[in-house]
Amino acid sequence: DTEVTQTPKHLVMGMTNKKSLKCEQHMGHRAMYWYKQKAKKPPELMFVYSYEKLSINESVPSRFSPECPNSSLLNLHLHALQPEDSALYLCASSQEPGEGYTFGSGTRLTVV
Amino acid sequence: SQQGEEDPQALSIQEGENATMNCSYKTSINNLQWYRQNSGRGLVHLILIRSNEREKHSGRLRVTLDTSKKSSSLLITASRAADTASYFCAPTYIGFKTIFGAGTRLFVKA
Q: Is the dihedral of CA A39, A44, A50, A54 positive or negative?
């Protein structure tokens, strides 16, 4: 298995909702990442997990809460989001931190 | 911000021609990676060059790195219509922060 699987592919949520994005990989990769991408912009780094520990939080608002339950899974819990948080959320993994990322196809999030 | 810059922002060429994209970054890096993205969706890793390397090849791709100028270039030779995509350079800084540049949109005309 050489894929990163993200679910759901699309998500529409209200500003008072709580939802979670899920990311899974079975390549034995030791690092996992969340990126956010707005239309026609580059991906922006949000969080880095290395060996299941949070190593980088790029000053992301607390309404985004990452979780790494085990080495294969990465979640992003969402609460009280704003319409400007609407974006494509990309998960990635790599064998070693900072090298050669495999990206999932993303979750397209719309906040209404 | 550690985001680097890429030029050109957009490039339109004929099939069979070569495409060159340039990237500049801000501070010392561990490595520099290049990615391709089709239709604003999945990103695909193309090639990684380490800070102690100067040039690397992979198929029709050639990457150079000049750490003294803090710059890199990606050359795609004999381009094909299927190469039409956005290309991002992504330097990895100390602490394993990989920050994507603004990207170059390449359009290859058949």
A: negative
Sheet with B71-76, side-by-side order of all strands = B5-7, B19-24, B71-76, B61-66, B55-58
pLDDT band of B40, cuts 50, 70, 90: low
Q: Which helix (H) or strand (E) holds B31?
A: strand B29-37
Three-point CA angle A91, A92, A96, nearest 5°: 150
Q: How far is B33 from chain A (nearest CA, A)?
A: 7
Task: Name the 3-class secondary structure at B83.
Answer: helix
Classify B25 as helix, strand or coil. Answer: coil
CB within 8 Å: B97 and A45: yes
Mean pLDDT by 10 residues, chain A (112 residues): 92 95 97 96 96 95 97 97 97 95 97 96
Tokens for B77? Answer: 């030779």
Residue B8, Cβ neighbours under 10 Å: how many?
Answer: 13
* A42 vs B42, B88, B97: nearest CB: B88
What gap in Å lies between CA A23 and CA A73, rounded to an integer? 6
